[in-house]
Amino acid sequence: MFRHALTTAVLLAAFFAEAKTPGEVYEQAAKSTVVVRNIDSSGKAKSMGSGVILPDRDVVTNCHVVKGASQLKVRIGDKEYPATLHYSDWDRDVCSLSVAGISAPAVVVGSSKTLKVGAKVYAIGAPKGLELTLSDGIVSSLREVEGGQYIQTTAAISPGSSGGGLFDDNGALVGLTTFYLAEGQNLNFAVPVEWVKELPKRSTKTASDAQSVTQWLNKAAELESRKDWSALIEHSRRWTKAQPSNALAWAGLGMAYGGTGQLAKAIEAFQQVLRINPELAIAWHNLGVTYGNSGQSAKAIDAFQQALRINPEYADAWAGLGFIYALSNQRGKVLEVYKRLKQLDPNIAEKFFKAAVMP
After folding, report:
1. One domain for residues 330 and 242
2. Residue 230: how many other CB atoms lie within 10 Å
3. Hey, which of 35-39, 139-143, 301-305, 313-317 has the most confident mean pLDDT?
4. Residue 126, domain extent
5. Residue 1 covered by a domain
6. Are 184 and 263 contained in the same domain?
7. Among 32, 141, 162, 236, which one carries the catalytic annotation?
8. Is 93 a catalytic residue?
9. Which of 194, 223, 246, 268 is least crowded, fewest Cβ atoms below 10 Å from its Cβ?
10. CA-to-CA distance for 307 and 277, rounded, in angstroms?
11. How many domains is the chain built from?
């Protein structure tokens, strides 16, 4: 009845834009995509990744692509340019490079907040050191993070693709591909483009030896995707100990406890998330789900209403609220929720109608 998903409002311009064909997306985005080479002190290639040219002419990539480099080279087409590290957010694994003289179109910058589960996306990069390739897929999961949404996609990501762009069906950049599981090509992840926009104000010169928030998040997302709740509990406990003020760490712990049926502990974890960030709609949603599953209807209603106060167009929170009304035999309110869902998301409205209205 209840599920973990994220739904966001679609911007008006994006709603009416005509989706491009895969070929059109590639033709547009490939012109702004580069190969990044990490050169060691002996002049040999240490590692290779991908990058994207921003409107300010910097090239953005993952920090792990450029870490420890003696020299950096950026190649686009048959031309190669020397590059230097400009901004670096090691915790989020987002770095930018200054590349003098590079001549290529800048990428069109979009927003991860317009994405929905099931949306078509495209990854463009240089997997295994090959020339630029395109892979397509859908958004299979979204995780609300500070400033945007951490994206799980079925679009294949391979070695050398790190730092490349993830694009929506209009060819706009929505994230940077950062992590994949070799044994499960449906487990591919991208950090949100909003983290690129915040890079200048978060930049630090040196990398910390501590595990980054992106590394913690990648592992948590992997374990959640596999529904390995016991391992996620252990991982999240270590994360909350290492970063006790990180809301994502406590959210992962709450999801894990919920997955194992430890609802009281899940409630405690989600309450801790909200102590850290009381304006996180997904945390109120998950708290409402957990209260609902533990039979605390009044508290569930309050939690869902808090989520909707923050985001009135949060379809999953409306559905959760509607299910509680249905369980409480408040049929009039159930129908009101159904009408609202029809406006926000017809697919969720149809499922809600079959599960809560028809009975």
Report:
1. yes
2. 11
3. 301-305
4. 12-28+109-202
5. no
6. no
7. 162
8. yes
9. 268
10. 12
11. 3
